[in-house]
Amino acid sequence: MQSVMIVVLGIGGMSFGWFVYSRFIATRIYQLDPDFVTPAHEFKDGADYHPTNKYILWGHHFTSVAGAAPIVGPAIAVYWGWVPAVLWVTIGTIFFAGVHDFGALWASARHKGKSIGALSEEVIGKRTRALFMVVIFLVLLMVNAVFGVVIASAFVNTPGSVFPAWSAIFVALIIGQLVHRKFNLIALSIGGVIALYLSVYAGSVIPLELPAMFNLTANASWIIILFIYAAIASMLPVWVLLQPRDFINGMQLVVGLILLYGAVLLSLPDISAPAFNNQVPADAPPLVPLLFVTIACGAVSGFHGIVASGTSSKQLNKETDARFIGYLGAVGEGALALITLVAVSSVALAASPEIWHEIYDQYGTAGAGTFIQGGAQLIANGWGLPFDISQTLLATMVVLFAGTTMDSGVRLQRYIIQEWGEIYNIPLFKKGVLATLVAVGCCLLLAFGAGGASGSGGLIIWPLFGSTNQILAGLTLLVISVILMKYGRPARYTMLPMIFVLFTSSWAALIKLKEFYEAGNWLLVTIDVIVVITTFMVILEAASVIAKIRRERVPAVDAN
After folding, report:
1. Alpha carbon of 456 to those of 151, 350, 414, 460, 507: distances in Å?
2. pLDDT tens-digit map of 13-35
3. Cβ density class 177-209: b for 16+ within 10 Å, e for less
């Protein structure tokens, strides 16, 4: 029954966030204007700038930001106990992620669809832009390189997910053409979800394995195939593949969440994880501040700001759609993180507290696989579905999320490189094909250059992702806050979350820096130092701008 209490309290809090708090932010702070001409209309090109139905755009935005992170982060963070994790997911979704994602989308749309990095120049200054874009590029590099490894590993470990994962691309291409020809969206949604779940069943019956090729392991071969696909997908017009694939994946997640939450209500599982874990080793990472960077997606994530200002803002049909896409997208991700916590905390994963402690004997040993096992058993117990089919369903969900994030991530890297071409007048970088090749080349160079024949090089710098990603979220909130101040609107609703996120993430970065230094990992030491110094320089630049804004608002005092 404890699981039902977690669900009721968490969903109740997020409902308050959507129905009450987001409405206040939309009307009083961001002051959305239904008549504002969005970049999707102003610069419509049918490729990147394309006015899009808000439900389809929600699907794109949601599945792009979700990825595997709102599953992996909570599955790891429950190590400290389920209470801290549930509180951070719920409070973070309401007051941090929703405002951050919504704000990044609104700010970008208000400034001609500029990315948050390019926007920082207009808001704060040129030096800030250069520093900001370094952090953004590092985050994208980490996400793309690691998600390639995550998907490849899932294909190797769960061969049943291969057929449905690639079938989803074929289904999305068909739906993209039909939506473009104004076919009924509801009918297409139902048909697409049915086709996707039929492919899940087929995958569980006919698992596919990739043979070793060119002296490469199956894992390495999948990574290369995935980046070839991502390169092609990132250059296609958004309505051809990106939008419909993300939309169908979004619908698939809604069905998956219904199955998981329904299973909790049907089976009423007890919680085997402790509310607060008092059996952690003496050398375990501290709860504060590590909890706040372990659960990023699902509470607040800088990567969301890149997506919101990189692809979503260029497809926003009306400014008033920003609340639905940005804030509700964050609520959807929070709901995924919450049910992940239930799956890895309940008896569905571990029949007793003793077994749970054996699984969570060390920080970082759990992850997506733990969620798949616990969630599949939860569905099997609640709905009576065979465990193998439930396992394939959830493995496919993880793969599809990681894949859509990778699709968007490579496209966003291409945008960043093209922006560098514009800023520094490098003609070759302005070309989409070459910029895409550079983006993919950097990812493959990290994957195979640092990881050798396995292609797992992205995992080497992944320990930096948590703090770097949260630092980016804080800097994005900082830019939004300065914009609000320049508009003469209250900035405390973004400023207070910004202060908290920058404080905890910088603290975590310094803790990790000490660990890397003691381990003699000089690559991570170097990158961590760059990120920390960059952060403080951006904060100082922003503080100068904020002080100037405040001085200009204070009326001059007559000396006489």
Report:
1. 12, 30, 22, 8, 28
2. 999 999 999 999 999 999 999 99
3. ebbeeeeeeeebbebbbebbbebbeebbeeeee
Average pLDDT, rounded, for the chain: 89
Structure tokens that stand for 175 in this block: 């739906």
Name the nearest CA neighbour of 371 among 218, 220, 257: 257
211, 22 contact by CB (below 8 A) = no
Residues 6+ apart with CB under 8 A from 551: none
- Burial zone of 528 (CB within 10 Å; 0-12 exposed, 13-18 middle, 19+ buried): buried
pLDDT at 557: 40
Q: Which two tokens stand for residue 414?
A: 């291409």
Please compute Rg for the chain using Cα positions: 22
Q: 82-92 vs 2-16: helix axis angle to the nearest 10?
A: 20
Cis before 289? omega within 30: yes
What token pair was written down for 23?
A: 């409405």
CATH of the domain spanning 2-157+217-249+257-282+304-462:
1.10.4160
- 330 with 253: CB under 8 angstroms? no
Contacts of residue 270, defined as CB under 8 A and 6 or more positions apart, other chains included, come to 1, 2, 3, 346, 347
- Quote the crossing angle between the two packed helices 126-157 and 522-553, to the nearest 10°: 140
CA distance 349 to 506: 34
**Cβ within 8 Å of residue 462, ≥6 positions away:** 142, 146
Q: Look up residue 442 and give its two tokens.
A: 């950097």
CB within 8 Å of 480: residues ≥ 6 apart: 100, 103, 104, 107, 494
Rounded Cα distance between 73 and 352, Å, is: 23
CB 65 within 8 A of CB 303: yes
Structure tokens given for 513: 């820096």
Q: Is the dihedral of CA 537, 540, 542, 545 positive or negative?
A: negative
Q: What is the pLDDT of residues 101-129, one digit of tens each?
A: 999 999 999 999 998 888 888 888 887 88
* Residue 47, Cβ density class (10 Å: 0-12 exposed, 13-18 middle, ≥19 buried): middle
What DSSP string describes 366-426?
-SHHHHHHHHHHHHHHHH---HHHHHHHHHHHHHHHHHHHHHHHHHHHHHHHHHHHHHTT-
What is the C-alpha to C-alpha distance for residues 198 and 232, in angstroms, rounded to an integer?
Answer: 26
Confidence label for 560 from pLDDT (cuts 50, 70 and 90)? very low
> Phi, psi (5° rounding) for residue 271?
-95, 125
- Given a contact cutoff of 8 angstroms between Cβ atoms, the answer to whether 441 and 115 are in contact is no
**Per this entry, what is the length of the chain?**
560
Q: Which of 533, 497, 476 is nearest to 308 (CA)?
A: 476
Q: Are 322 and 23 in contact (CB under 8 A)?
A: no
Q: Which residues of 329-361 are buried (b: 16+ CB within 10 A; e: fewer)?
A: bbbbbbbbbbbbbbbbbbbbbbeeeeebbebbe
* Contact partners, residue 115, CB within 8 Å, separation at least 6: 108, 136, 306, 309, 310, 412, 415, 416, 419
d(CA 143, CA 132): 17
